[in-house]
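writing this on my phone so excuse typos. first protein, seq and then structure
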Amino acid sequence: MKGNIHTHFGAILIFCVFLAFSSCKEEPTIIEKPSPELLQFSLSAEKNPLQIVYTANGSIDDSSVTVRVENILSSYVLTPTIRFKGDSVTIANIRMDNVDHAFDFSQPQQLIVHSGKLRKEYIVSVLSYNGLPIVWIETKQREDIVSRDEFLTADFRLDDISTKVNIIGRGNSTWEVSPKKPYTLKFDEKRSLLTMPEDKSWVLLANFFDKTSLRNATAFYLSRLSLLDYTPRAEFIDLMLNGRYNGTYQLTEKIKIGKNRVNISNGYLLEIDAKYDENDSIIRTRHLIHPVNIKEPDNPSAGDVAYVRDYLTRFETVLYSDYFTDADSGWTAYMDLESAVDWYLVQEIAKNTDGAFFSSCYMTLAKGGKLQMGPVWDFDIAFGNVNYNDNWNPEGLFINGATWYSRLFQDPVFVAHVKQRYDYFYSHKYDIIAYINMQANKLRYSVEENEKRWGVFYTPTWPNYDIWGSYQNEVQSLKEWINRRMDWLKTEFNGLSIGETQDSPPSGK
């Protein structure tokens, strides 16, 4: 028994000694990997002597890097300088390994910082000069573009596109009055430009009268919210014309019949316009002040003209008849109700002087189909940017007094649809404001250079009502005008009575 006690005591003693010895032994140190983080991303003149003038330091946030190079880049293949916390960095799946690599930053690239099993991802965007795509156009021997009738052949470059283009002046008041000219481009073959689907014909809008450059874009945004079949797509660009920076432009789809444009077969593109050429195929109606121009097809036949004239005559006869509200034989048998309502609301929200059936009022007519309003076009003197017709004022109805519409407002069905659809547009009021902010932010550098070129912010340009003195103030004024306009229309349409219109004067730009 005693031997067993001693044996157990000895075993316990050995075990305690072992525990004591074990507690004195140091635990192995676990080295934790640092959290991966990008500390610096820059493009230096030292590593990119042909492309960079001044070193451009990237702005780094949680998941993106934005680098603004303050000169025009002819090539986006650039070698970056990088500092980071972690083991390694990959760009476009290529590991840097302390060796300089050149990458094509014409499109955003993925950068990943690795630290052990951890990784941190960033999207790197390189913006050249003003942050906008740059269109380069150079005519033969740098000949000036002085005609709206004869095309000049020019070299054209945009991103990876380098080709020939035909260029001509366009517009009415903008061509005659504005020193910053708009242009029409026509390629020999269909081209897809930036994010827009392919076609031969394009437009460069100058937006000279609009100090924000955003009114056309805002109207297009409203149109995209609508039920209209087609809205021209557009992207802001900087234009280098014959070796000289020419300012901020909108590269825009030209309104024409086509698969990627006004997609109607066996039909007509029509425009109500006070200004037309003697060779245009125009049709005068009994009730419209200005004629309807058959824009397409080009050189319409006598049969085409007769078809459109006959259709418009029958439509107006019914519209001004005693039975014009009849659901089966009234005006809706000839004109599409949805497009008539939504086209009206885009124009009325903008209080567009030209939209009162003065100019750029487009319609389509497919054989066997109904007359449809749209697409929308030409809003540079809309949204309060005009000093006549009281259209600087965010209050007051205007478009509903335009001939056909003054009659449509006597139809309770049309009025009910206007009220219903306006509630939809009103529900998107702050989306419209947010869109303006987003576009203004995109243009913030370009407009600075445009101002150096044209000097518009402190100078009255026809037909400005107010001069706010800076781009930020001009944008703020536009947003406040839209906010007041849409609030006023909300109250007005809620209490609108059938037949309540305002006579719109026929004057325009």
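second protein below, same order as before
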Amino acid sequence: MTASPKISATAKAAFDEGKQGQALIYLPAIVLAELYYMNKKYGQPIDFAATFDRLQANAQYVFIPFTAAETLDFDAHAAAPEMHDRMIVGVARRLGAACITRDKQIVGSGLVTIVW
């Protein structure tokens, strides 16, 4: 997933820190859902089930579920107008974590620290 020429050196370095066990990479459930649908859209260039299993088997990747109560934070994240982006921003804010993204709406929201 980090082999894309579109990924910045800074974002790749953040993922590399995770691979080396120097950092945790939090994966909100919605990000996994988006990965699944992007993979389908682009003709399944990755084996999603194998990728999921690999992520789950590595302690540096922490899956973060979405709970119903987190919808109460949506108004506080209104600067990110898209529902899925509000979910991602919510996880980053709750955990005090940076968000590895180039998503223009998340970046433009100013709600979280961005790594890209």
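The chain has one domain: 9-115. thats all i got for now
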